[in-house]
Amino acid sequence: HREAEVAMQVENGPSDAAAADAGLPSGGNGLVGMRERVLGLGGVFVSGPTDAGGFRVSAVLPAGSNDA
Questions:
Q1: pTM: predicted TM-score of the whole model, two decimal places
Q2: What angle do CA 6, 37, 48 make, to 5 degrees?
Q3: Exposed site from 1, 11, 20, 51, fewest CB < 10 Å?
């Protein structure tokens, strides 16, 4: 028996050189923060490059009750 869960995935393709060189600011904790939050809720978090040269972020969270 598998409990209810919510799964989400975001994937992009390879970036072009202009986007890669844009120099956008980053706090440096985006993926780390997402992982901590997902794991703290009892979920599973996976992120990394795709074979096509893009990047994928996936999370599966338990869909529990509000009986806290």
A1: 0.72
A2: 75
A3: 1
